[in-house]
Design brief:
Blueprint lengths: L1 E4 L22 E3 L6 H4 L3 E7 L4 H4 L2 H10 L5 E7 L9 H10 L6 E3 L4 H5 L7 E5 L5 E7 L3 H12 L29 E2 L22 E4 L2 E3 L4 E3 L4 E7 L3 E7 L7 E7 L17 E4 L3 E7 L7 E7 L5 E7 L1
Parallel strand pairs: 3-4, 4-5
Antiparallel strand pairs: 1-7, 2-5, 3-6, 6-7, 8-18, 9-12, 10-11, 11-18, 12-17, 13-16, 13-18, 14-15, 14-17
């Protein structure tokens, strides 16, 4: 969903919003040697701010990837700027694995200290900035959506070489667009810094829509709820097609088995791709996990996840 964007028209030239700042604050690069304004001169450049667990960014990725492939020969360069939200997203190995698994082949600047983010005066994931061959930023878009508009800006800045139909994508997994008409549950953080609607001590069957609760030996830390003993659970009353949870084990090389229930039963056909029909899965990576994708009618339901060993770290629910 768009938070803010401009609407250029054929009769209105794109505004100049500033010049490309430097990338001196990037701590490293993936898929490329370091880039800066000089290396990008003469190219149309799309800067894409992202972090690998962000569902809002993941739902834009199919388009960004397609633009990078479609318009590379015409002079487009896509630069991803990975600015982490959660502590484990600062780990270069985690980002590198995400880049490989998500088939991202364009350059990625690593921005763990938010230096590039601040140079652009950015405040959002995802955020797109498009610059012309003179290094002037001519367009920006915050949030999801406006895919045709972004692509038309790219084509306008590339000139006569970009023609034909707009790209067509077939998203899979996390990249599938949200079911906006039936989405009534918001992003919900499980750390004390941003937690909302936490029904401490509530019985699962008493939860109201968008309330969540914990059972077992949990410590609610600043960024996450951390499980101290086996058989701890999280429950959430939701209204959405998809239930996703940012979570991970405490350390690389460890794992925590878990089981998901929906309205007290195994999810069956409603299982997400990180669990089986019985709702069983294993927490072995620090990332976003899809736990429910409902194929039928969307109504209020109660989600429960129980961890069979200590150590699970749960950061944020997202829905789609």
């Amino acid at each position: 969903m768009s938070l803010f964007h401009r609407h250029p028209t054929e009769s209105e030239s794109l505004p100049v919003e500033g010049r490309i700042p430097g990338f001196d604050g990037a701590t490293g690069w993936l898929n490329s040697d370091p880039l800066g304004p000089e290396e990008l001169r003469g190219k149309v450049v799309l800067f894409d701010f992202w972090t690998y667990t962000c569902i809002n960014w993941l739902r834009t990725l199919a388009y960004v990837r397609a633009w990078a492939e479609r318009y590379q020969e015409e002079g487009l360069v896509v630069v991803g700027v990975h600015t982490p939200e959660f502590p484990f997203e600062r780990d270069v190995d985690n980002v590198r694995r995400a880049v490989e698994e998500m088939n991202i082949h364009y350059p990625v600047a690593l921005d763990p200290d938010y230096a590039v983010w601040q140079a652009f005066a950015n405040n959002y994931w995802p955020a797109v900035y498009i610059a012309d061959p003179e290094g002037r930023i001519r367009y920006h878009h915050f949030g999801e959506g406006a895919y045709d508009e972004c692509e038309r800006v790219i084509r306008e800045l590339l000139g006569d070489g970009a023609a034909g139909e707009l790209v067509s994508v077939s998203p899979e997994g996390f990249e599938v667009q949200a079911d906006w008409e039936n989405l009534e549950s918001p992003e919900s953080y499980l750390g004390s810094e941003q937690a909302r609607n936490f029904a401490r001590g509530a019985a699962v069957d008493s939860l109201r829509l968008n309330q969540w609760t914990l059972s077992g030996d949990w410590a609610v830390e600043r960024k996450a709820s951390v499980l101290g003993a086996a058989e701890g659970a999280i429950a959430f009353r939701f209204h959405a097609r998809d239930v996703n949870l940012v979570m991970g084990p405490p350390q690389k090389g460890t794992s925590v088995p878990f089981r998901v229930l929906v309205d007290g039963e195994a999810p069956g056909d409603a299982h997400g791709f990180d669990v089986d029909r019985e709702g069983r899965g294993t927490l072995s990576e620090q990332r976003l996990h899809q736990l429910v994708r409902e194929p039928g009618a969307i109504v209020d339901r109660t989600f429960e996840i129980t961890f069979e060993a200590a150590g699970a770290e749960a950061y944020c629910f997202t829905f789609g």
